[in-house]
Design brief:
Elements lengths: L1 H26 L1 E6 H22 L31 H16 L5 H9 L7 H11 L20 H5 L1 H5 L5 H10 L8 H16 L5 H9 L7 H15 L3 H13 L14 H15 L3 H10 L6 H14 L25 H18 L3 E4 L5 E7 L23 H4 L6 H19 L4 E3 L8 E6 L2 E7 L8 E8 L6 E8 L6 E7 L2 E8 L8 E7 L7 E9 L8 E10 L1
Antiparallel strand pairs: 1-3, 2-3, 4-7, 5-6, 6-13, 7-12, 8-11, 8-13, 9-10, 9-12
Helix pairs in contact: 2-15, 2-16, 3-4, 3-16, 4-5, 8-9, 9-10, 9-15, 11-12, 11-13, 12-13, 13-14, 13-15, 14-15
Length: about 575
């Protein structure tokens, strides 16, 4: 009898342990997604980005703080699907994919910073500031810290975060972690949360078609106390209260564009909150219609190619490539290589699948095959863990992170070599634009050179200061005729979110110092006349300075440089 009682005790313990293990196993839920369905939706996500940026590209920053009239929205043409292979909306995030392809999903943030520093494409604002810091040896996470980066809340990582959800189906925590790695290279606080929101929405779009639920899933991935989360909650609520998207847009404008409380650490037109609101505007009022989603996100204005690209990517993911209308797919050239990358469309899909497999296994998922041999991703459902709250206008301490000498040796980018090549190119451009003028101390930011069209103005020369202390200079020796009135006539412009000082000197004497900003050049352009008549009969050195006033969008745009004599 004693032996039987002992046996019964052990049997009871065994049953209890099995029950506990069974409960533990059941506590983790899983989602299943066939690999063909994953690739179909993931491909659609890329095509949505391509369609959105191509469709909105002609309108970029032409409508600021105003709704784009319906008749100004470009008409979609199927051939436009091939216009995005040169768009930074796409090739910058592919730099991040390349880092993970080469070093694995767990590539270190420092290696990610080295790879981003070595990129050769032109960049602006938060991206440019972050990369400049990396090239100076300021390692991440400090490369994005507001102490070193004056554009922490810019839209940059929001534009580039699509990849983070497309390689993490149903895995919002992976999108969050990728934001902490790649988003930290250039953005801080709301600027990084904007990208994590996008990544988490993509992650949910593989399983959910209800766009409100997709947005709510994204909202869970960012700190609830952040202003960016407040914006998302507002959009969800306002979309219930406002019968038209235009009325909802007005609420966005009043709170997130005009209220100074929501413009702290903001770079105006490219602040992540107002542009993120327009992404959600398209998703919420598009109501699942692909064209309407893109058009509304575009007509909201501001960064009106990036916003429809983000909205298009999410909504297309919910549909899948095989179910997209032919107008978005039939003329796609899948063999074209995306600028500054190693990828065409098939290569892009392959690297995303490779990384998705790594992400799923890392998160405790697996791959299974059914009785027909079809492979499935088995994806765990886990509680979402947002990043900690940071405020770009009241940042925490820096990490004091600098690249080591060994890491600096890996920076293959050579500023001196690039500046020499740029100087040769700019000499040729200046010779075409304003024969007889010379250029010196031009920096490489904002893609300087002669542009055929710049926001409706033809044949525009763009230059940029060498650094924060060194202005770019155009100069020419001018013979001023005697007995005649002579004037220097200039038409100058600025980036929509930029400003700079125009300084005119004659024989080192300052004749004019004119800010070129939102006040003096409200529409982006300014006409200037400088009287040179006092130098009649003399040969005088005339210098035009592109003087920096800060360090974000400091480019000078020149439409006209002329000496006119009457």
């Amino acid at each position: 009898m004693k032996t039987n009682k002992t046996s019964n005790v052990w049997i009871g313990l065994l049953i209890t342990l099995l029950a506990v293990n069974a409960q533990g196993a059941e506590s983790t839920q899983f989602r299943r997604l066939s690999v063909p369905d994953y690739r179909d939706k993931m491909k659609a996500g890329w095509i949505g980005q391509i369609a959105g940026v191509s469709w909105g590209a002609p309108t970029e920053f032409k409508y600021r703080s105003q709704i784009m009239p319906e008749d100004k929205m470009p008409k979609w043409l199927p051939r436009m699907i091939n216009d995005a292979f040169v768009q930074d909306d796409l090739y910058v995030e592919m730099t991040f994919l390349r880092s993970m392809e080469q070093y694995g999903l767990d590539v270190s943030i420092r290696q990610a910073g080295i790879d981003f520093a070595n990129s050769g494409y032109g960049l602006w604002c938060a991206n440019a500031a972050g990369r400049d810091n990396l090239r100076k040896g300021i390692a991440p996470p400090d490369s994005s810290h507001p102490k070193f980066n004056k554009c922490p809340n810019d839209i940059d990582y929001q534009i580039e975060a699509d990849y983070s959800g497309l390689i993490a189906p149903g895995l919002p925590n992976v999108a969050i972690a990728l934001g902490e790695k790649f988003g930290r290279l250039m953005n801080y606080g709301d600027g990084m949360y904007a990208g994590q929101l996008m990544g988490a929405m993509y992650a949910e779009a593989f399983f959910e078609k209800d766009i409100v639920k997709v947005i709510e899933a994204g909202l869970k991935a960012i700190p609830a106390e952040s202003q960016h989360a407040e914006m998302v909650r507002d959009m969800l609520q306002w979309s219930k209260e406002c019968p038209t998207w235009e009325e909802c847009w007005q609420r966005c404008q009043k709170k997130y564009r005009e209220n100074p409380e929501y413009q702290k650490a903001s770079n105006g037109d490219i602040d992540c909150k107002i542009n993120g609101a327009y992404v959600l505007l398209g998703l919420l009022y598009g109501k699942g219609d692909l064209d309407q989603t893109i058009q509304i996100a575009c007509r909201g204005g501001q960064d009106s190619d990036c916003n429809p690209s983000s909205a298009g990517g999410v909504i297309f993911t919910t549909v899948g490539f095989s179910k997209l209308p032919e107008r978005f797919t039939k003329e796609l050239n899948e063999k074209t290589i995306f600028s500054h990358t190693a990828y065409n469309v098939p290569g892009l899909l392959d690297v995303c699948e490779k990384l998705a497999r790594q992400a799923i296994v890392k998160e405790g998922g697996r791959m299974e095959k059914d009785n027909n041999g079809e492979e499935f991703f088995v994806i765990p459902v886990k509680p979402v863990k947002p990043s900690k709250l940071e405020l770009s206008w009241a940042p925490g301490p820096i990490a004091g992170s600098m690249f080591t000498e060994e890491e600096m040796a890996k920076l293959t980018y050579s500023e001196s070599r690039k500046l020499k090549q740029l100087a040769l190119k700019l000499k040729q451009d200046v010779d075409k634009f304003a024969p007889g003028w010379a250029i010196a101390n031009c920096g490489s930011e904002m893609d300087p050179g002669l542009r055929g069209d710049e926001r409706g103005h033809q044949n525009v020369l763009v230059i940029h200061p060498l650094n924060q202390e060194t202005q770019c200079v155009l100069s020419r020796k001018v013979e001023i005729p005697a007995g005649k009135k002579t004037a220097l006539k200039l038409t100058v412009g600025r980036h929509p979110e930029g400003d700079w000082d125009l300084v005119v000197r004659a024989d080192m004497r300052e004749l004019l110092r004119q800010p070129v900003d939102k006040t003096t050049a409200a529409n982006g352009w300014l006409e200037v006349s400088v009287d040179l008549s006092e130098y009649q009969g003399k040969s005088v050195l005339v210098e035009l300075y592109n003087q920096p006033t800060g360090w974000c969008n400091e480019a000078a745009y020149w439409e006209k440089i002329a000496i006119e004599t009457k």
